[in-house]
Design goal:
Chain lengths: ~775, ~200
Amino acid sequence: MKTQRIAVAVPVLTAVLYLVCRLPEGTRAASRMPARGEGAATLAAIGALGRSGASHAEDRETWSRDIAPLLYRHCTTCHHPGGAGPFSLLTYADARRWAPQVLAVTQSRFMPPWLPEPGYGDFADVRRLSDDERALIQRWIDGGMTQGDPKEAPPPPHYDSTWQLGQPDLVLDAPRPVALQAGGTDIFLNLIMPYPLKETRYIRAMEILPSPARVVHHANVFIDRLGSLRRSHPGDWEDGVPGMDLLMDAGNRFEPDSHFLFWKPDSPALVEPGGMPWRLDSGNDLGLNIHLKPSGKPETVTMRVGLYFTKDPPVHQPMLLQLAGDDKLDIPAGDSNFVVEDSLTLPVDVQVLGVYPHAHYLGHDMEGWAILPGGEKKWLVWIKDWDINRQSVYRYRVPVLLPQGTVLHMKYSFDNSEDNPHNPHSPPVRVHAGNRSEDEMSHLWLQVLPVNTPAKGPDPRLLLEEAWMRNRVSKSPLDRLSLYNLAAALAGQERFTEAAIVFRQELSIDPKNARTLTALGAALEGAGQTRQAEESYREAIAIGVETGVSSCDPRFNLARLQVRSGNYSEAEMEFRQLLESCPEDAGIRSTLGAALLGAGRQDDAVREFNRALELDAGDPTALFNLGAMAADSGNTDQAVKLLEPAVRAWPASVDAHEKLALAYAQSGRLNDALEQLRSAAALTPGDAMVHELLSQVLGDLGHTQEAIGELKQALQLNAGDADGWNNLGALELRAGQADAARADLEHALRINPEHPQAKANLARVEGRN
Amino acid sequence: MPLPAFYRNVATLALIAAFAAMCAYGTGPMGFDLHGKPIPELAGPGVRVVVLFFAASDCPISNRYVPEVARLSREFSSQGVRFWWVYPNVGDTAAVVEQHNREFSISGYTLLDPKQTVTAMAHASTTSEAAVFLVNGGRLREVYDGRIDDRYISIGQERPRPEHHDLEVAIAAALAGKPVPQPGGRPVGCSIVFLQK
């Protein structure tokens, strides 16, 4: 059994989004705002032209021919009846009614919402209007807003309030409607939706249906693997948790956030690329970080999330990386150009799939770029006039390949002067980094997919995590979270001694941290320092008792140590005590099952494994042990069904690969068995048994020479194996290598002179001669 | 032969003055209430200041100002100030406005301005926009025309909260008989749909 329980707290990057406006009044705003008189003049001109004759009507732009297609392409996704836009632009009458506003916001480029500068990142789904399109709108309005021949207009797009991708496989509702007040400032709220299924599901697409749509400005969806937000707000989580950004406990498995689940009204369906679904497990919560804009009347807001499943687990594992200058965010009041920078060197080749720049209300100019190892500069994004209200995730039209050694850069400027109208403070005050809307942030998130990954070696995401956290620690040596995550990333690479050093570094700052002591214990255990590991667990338990904090994890690990040392009865007692305080912990249940199995109580063990799977259908210990029992008893279908997810959960488990290989072999799927054994051999090249099994499967597949090669490797590692020498002789005999066969069979008999098969095989060799 | 610009402006001002006189003396309806009944005058017994808030049922910024205007109405109504919710767009029929007022809990004086008489009198061009008139011997004299406050800078450009409450300051000054400060910026919202004449 290779369970490991190392706590990994990943800052939840997810989080956060907001909206609200910005734009300094005196400078930027003034430059784009017509003076009062100019506005009036524009209206007067529209009216006058609208009344003028139509002597050249055939030459003029018309709504039917020119404007309707443009509005349908760029605007009506939101601007339709019941849509998120404040008014409809579907009909000629609509376009005429709102022409002054359409003109103003397209000329200022406020609409359609699109912040990146063209030429600084090649993005998909660009919303920016071309200069020609803007000029077309201007000419149509100047020309009197002619309708033209209605037959020339394309059919209007159809919108309704139902799911665009059809009925979802699962619909989650926010527990309670949100009561939005009529006026006041914008609201940022985190709604929590527990995932109700016991089974793991992979999500290929997601839709969100808000009602009323017009008050929901955006939603950033996050996965709370442990339900930590719900647990930390036991009395009021159903009402939503206020806040613009979040920090969540990411749990004990290394599962970095991997997807941008950013929803905005003009992109209601988020469809993931092929092979990259995201995952929900039993016990997870889905969170909606929403920005609500009061409409002028009290509103009752409901949020529904539709999930579309796929049976296929991900074949690609992307990861979100962050550059940030938060440590330097100490913005003096009145400073209109406060600049922070950050950089990060990539330890592996990646493709950048998307980018999400993020700041609050003071952000102004935001640049992200990469310097390739050869010195070439590649722009990732440039936003010259940040507006939190129009923030978005931007996905690249073609993934951006960045080789190992590339240095990622970000450079953000902030305007904390009175001239920034979005400044939450008047007069301005000194501002630091923080999660509240009146604090600041300087984040550049990148969704990266590791590529060109060597067959052997650690998960490349662990290398990225290590590089990221080292960067954070270098900037903030006392950043406990980053130290913890760095240590966890090292432990994940089985660099346990280094991990223990970093955990101790964190403990020097916070000596009474039970969680870190538990993680240190796990690292020490991995490094083979069992006694020190036990001490660390015991210290964590003592602190838990002292502080009233749950000590399930260290007690679990301590009991598991006893399982490993064969002390099953003590382990069982400890696990049963643990279950009294942690009854819903599937991991405790399944490890108790393992202890019972070790004590020979198979029926009791099976009962505990099944209960564990009821609590968490993806519990790998239960899956593995039940699967192994099924394989051993020849129940191959059941074995394959259980062991496949176990292998996905434990890709580094040789036992899991071997058992699955056995199940495959029993059901005649020799090539699948071969694949599993090769994975196992890659993990433990020095394991003679794996090479022996490989030899057996290769032999059954008719690859005799390869089988001989694998068996020779096995015998180099375990030269005293008479069975092995006999098998080698038999293979050589099959290959017509009689001399070699004779020598190896004689070798087997020297080890075990009574070896019956070796005797028989040798007789066959002699008989041939 | 067209008049020089200067004289044209003078003529416009004279027209406005005539309008004010007409409405003050009740010689023509200023608009209609939600039952279609003509509204002869904007002031009334004991009214010292008249405030017009130009609204549109389909204008988001106008709607977002409803709570603020309702607050001002509550605060000043007992001091001799009469607030009017004025709907200048022809699409805002009595039925539409009646439903809108119900949805937004608007309960004050409401005026439909299908001929845009009051709109012209107040020089309003935008929803939301407000005008303040002093009531003087049955005559109305406009002392303020402009934004409610500085929350909106342009469409899409919005402060977290207003810093200058222009309309509130103007009403207080008008009540106190002091010079009325003029708006610090233009109103932001939706253009009034002017009638073609």
